[in-house]
Amino acid sequence: MAGTPVVVSSPNRSCQAVSFLSSTSSRQNRSRVAEQIGRYAVEEELGRGATGVVYKALDLKLKRVIAIKVVNQEGPLGSVAWGWLLREAQLAGALNHPCICTVYDVGEEDGFAYIAMELVDGYPLSLFLTPSGLPHSLVVDCGRLIAGGLEHAHQRGILHGDIKAANVMVNARGELKILDFGLARRLRTGAALKALQSSAGLGVVAGTVPYLAPEVLRGERASVWSDIWSLGVLLYEMATGRFPFQGHTVFDIAIAIMTSKLTLPANRIRPQLAHIIGRCLQKDPRRRYSRASDILRDLSGMGISNVAVCWRKYKVPPRVHPDA
Fold it and tell me: Considering the entire predicted model, what is its pTM?
């Protein structure tokens, strides 16, 4: 199904989280991809998304295994948008943080626009989420790590714009990596707004709309505040197993985000965490946290456990679908 997050595992269990393209686009891209792109030898496909196809590849110069995203210039990005994606990928390549997936290289070779990045051995956080949510200690520690990665990027003028469970990977050591930093901001915002205009009332369930801030849904520019809102949604989702604002269609969800009152279930969310989430999810951006470092400070004040130990019982996520 288009838009469904998937993980495709290779024999060495390395995988990268993306979403399916339409079947037509998938067949076209599969037939066009080369066995070698620049200095990268393509080994196998890992997954597909709206922005392109991700492959496992070998960097022939540095002799390291990487993930390479071949950008779909005929899809939502278009050839014109490749210019700004290239610039944003170059900015993201300057980020150096243990919780951010590293961008190694960007370029164009033989008609293929590509982004070479760190290959994350693990699964997306979305596959670990159950209807009852995660244990409190994991919610706090995951939030702390993600907030640290966000602060690192924000200090360098880079927004994410698409913080969600599917864009956070958990590797075999229990370490977290945020994917696609700064690469999806303009595409996701535009796609969400277009979806609201064209899909309302058609029964189409939202993709990343549940994570979007009210002001972004109104057409305002993404900001540090909108990234903080998305982190608040993710904290809520991790704690409860559900989104804070729900609906049957994209339109319903967007209206709920913009107008509905936030409910924080006391049986799922402890008071101190509820305070943090509530502040992240203020409708007025000026009433939210102004910096991700403030969220990091408040989460750290709740006590820090060993997140790697907490993840040990989740060697395989409960929602892995290897044949998806």
Answer: 0.80
